[in-house]
């Protein structure tokens, strides 16, 4: 026995070394400073509290030999998994609350913040990561390697490496307050519910539970027929209901605290109740009734659109509003932040603030599907902050997206928020080191939706890069401030060089990387082609969603409807989202629309070049691996930004027939060239053209 155990430990160490798991990046924001000693007393002995104690012992940075009390109490000021931090005491109503309090304390010790008189309650009850991981190990829209959960349906056995990695994952999530994981793709294989796969689900749940994390599954609506062999998957059919009931029983036997189902139904070809003449409420409620006795929830996605609709932005609202009040209280409608699809910038979806009798939860995308995959720096907290703080005016001024979803205006029984994870098997988890900041930021905002992006960036940089060796003042001025500025600007830079002024969905097809404003093959669904969205013609640019156009503005509450209906009162960041405007339309800068567009693209390119300058200056503050990685990434991004900008400016110029303002940098690529290649493949490390790939690429 002993020999076997020590061999497997050695193998694990070798494996971790090969995978690079010993390196700093794998430790995320949890890099350990040598811990000081601490004496802990606790009135609770649960596994979760024991994990909290272990975290404290490993990370304590307070006074040496300090005494710390962990107390489970009954305190009405503390909600859900909240906690109080006071004079070396952490109080919470639940073991998870203790765990979150411990991580808050450890974080504050490292960032040098006050650790007394703190009451912290989570904004959302359920703070969930959605993994778009497939059973075969691939990750849809994942740019950080294969799945940490799945390797294929023939490889379901759980290894020591799996257990170790899932544990590290669980700790990272717990440290930022995430308490749920939906561990497979929303485009769900029915096989996910097979008994063999559920055994592995149980193993995953067993590792996550001691860190306060519930496991959820995405389910395929046609599972009763496809997996169960029934004739139908009609949600009102008695056999179908029986099948789901038996499945739920099987799951809860294995995973007693199973969180519930996430469902993508009647969306992008996925099956759903409409296939059987039923509606979203029929489908969601059937599942909700089955999960209710177990305390499970159904997260039913509102990401629906069809080729026939004249404006894709309208459809989710049109499909869901009629069912307001018809959903069970354990159904939550999961709504992407924007009405179209995780674009670099969208106004908030009108479904927030629309349904008054139905719980709605925001869905953000942490993985950078439309923001440069893992080749471009885009710190996404500012984007999420923008959505959460957008005023829906549903219940008068101040009814922000955060407030209408987090239970502070309506007394929803369940509140939740989801983020599509950017996590994979890469040793740095997220594809590039700074992408870890997006995982971190999502967790922090899900816990506290009032946090500012700047604070989150500040925390993350301190936790990730601050070295004890550095003089604190030097470090702040030399590293923290400039790098934070770069992070905070980075998403706006992506918007500027790819889709400024409210433009959206003008990326290259399918893989969603790089520019494709021209992409519109004859047989393509129009609502998948960029010209459908930008509507460029000789008269101007933009999608008319005003009352004279698709009238999407009417899905918002006043005063927004009137504001957005009028170009002059529409925030310029959303201008071409709501308006088709003449090339000569005068923008707030005083420039004409065409010139302003060119200026925006140019600005984006220059922002990235400034990031390069910023980064080169901080070389002495980071380890050489991190330095070189980011330097390469920014070089790649500068290349991509110029490609994007040139492609869009030259493409739109064919319609505007106006010169690029003479003071701006000229395009350096030919549009014919850019139209002929696959933008993912033209960059070669070092900044050269990847000639072999260009020659082979079909775009
Ligand atoms: C789109 C993605 C696609 C997802 C879909 C979704 O391109 O891979 O399946 O969203 O959210 O943006 O369901």
UniProtKB/TrEMBL annotation:
It holds the Pfam family Glyco_hydro_67C. Residues 113-429 form the Glycosyl hydrolase family 67 catalytic domain. The keyword Hydrolase applies. InterPro entries: A-glucoronidase_C_sf (IPR037054), GH (IPR017853), Glyco_hydro_67_C (IPR011099), Glyco_hydro_67_cat (IPR011100), Hex-like_dom2 (IPR029018). Gene3D superfamilies: Alpha-glucuronidase, C-terminal domain, Chitobiase/beta-hexosaminidase domain 2-like, Glycosidases. Keywords: Hydrolase. The keyword Hydrolase applies. Coiled coil: none annotated. Residues 430-661 form the Glycosyl hydrolase family 67 C-terminal domain. This is Alpha-glucuronidase. It comes from Pedobacter alpinus. The lineage of its organism: Bacteria, Pseudomonadati, Bacteroidota, Sphingobacteriia, Sphingobacteriales.
